[in-house]
Amino acid sequence: MGRLLLSGAVLALLSLPGAGFAGTKVWIDHSPWDSLLKQYVTPEHRVDYRGIEDRALADLDAYLGRLAEPWPAGMSPAATKAALINAYNALTVRWILTNYPVASIWRTDDPFHARRHTLDGKRVSLDDIESRLRGMGDPRIHAALVCAARSCPPLRREAYVAERLDEQLDDNARRWLADETLNAFHPERKSAEISPIFKWYAADFRAAGGVEGFLERFGPIGRTAFLRGTGVRLAYRSYDWALNDTSPLSAGYGRWELYWDWLRHGEPALEFKQWLLRLGERYGVDPLVFGILYVGATPLFWLSLAWLARNHRKCRPLFVPALSASLFFGAAYFYVLAAGENIPVWVYGAAGSAVAAGTYSTVRRIRAGWEEERCA
């Protein structure tokens, strides 16, 4: 009898979500999120936010409460990845509901950078979750993360789970690329119009053979072979940040509203900072030095252009102000040329042109001096 009771207790412990012992499966129960997705996400991948708010908000909060607690030790990489994707999408939906009704996630207060969420016992932002996923080196996560915008990849109508994660991510990548409102392929013209996500996170797709390799692998069957050839043209579509709602609430959210919201959130400064960090990583230089040279040389470049225009009007020599403008225009990249790697070809061209122009000018002046002495 005692053995039966002990066995029953062990089985009961093992049946608890997230419970497990060495050698057993360790997991988080995502079935509540799965039920919400099946009921409140349409086949067109729009979200019935009003329906969740009216009938399922407590279920969503209970699920997020479980994700907020420390996660079980021993979760596999696949289980962790699935949990992070589900957490990102569920927290995004919850943040929209906190502000609902709203025309776009950009109409909310600092939607991506603020550490207002609790996950695995820690305060995190949506960007923190995305960064953790990006660090796993799987570009397919960009086909699964949904930031509540109409141009996002399709919000899957089921939760991601470790046991089927590869199958689910592959399928969602194919669904994303097959949706012609988000990505379109024109093999007859050797061109494609693709989501700007591929531009924003280009470095992440190197693991899949670059952007072209990812598109060829997951794009519509029979329409991507041209990507292996030459002369391929990729164009990036505009991103529609209107809310992915089933209601027409966000229909009026346009580009000018987005620009205003970006300015209001200070996004231009953040974008510049991230651009500098990406350049520093790409070229192997100090992004702070690059930024100082880039920002500091910009007003000097415009002053040189004004000097050039004035000399042109007064029929004065143009070489020195033109050389000055060229040097200040490429100052930050000349630093890359001296201290970095993976240098863009145009930097070599600009540096070579500046040196050639300076040499030519020097030779002319020397010859002019010789001619004056000879004729004196």
Care to describe what's here?
Helix 5 (77-99) packs antiparallel against helix 6 (126-134), helix 11 packs across helix 12 and helix 12 (287-313) packs across helix 14 (331-339). The protein starts with a helix and ends with a helix. Helices cover 55% and strands 5% of the residues. The strands form 2 sheets. A 3-stranded mixed β-sheet has the order 3-4-5. Strands 1-2 form a two-stranded antiparallel sheet. The chain has 15 helices and 5 strands. The model is unreliable at 1-24 and 371-375 (pLDDT under 50). Among the domains are: 24-166, no CATH class; 270-375. The chain has 376 residues and is mainly α. Strand 3 and strand 4 form a beta hairpin.
Overall strand count: 5
Distance between the termini: 124 Å
Rounded average pLDDT = 83
| Beta strand % | under 5%
Low-confidence runs of at least 5 consecutive residues: 1-24, 371-375
The secondary structure category is: mainly alpha
Radius of gyration: 28 Å
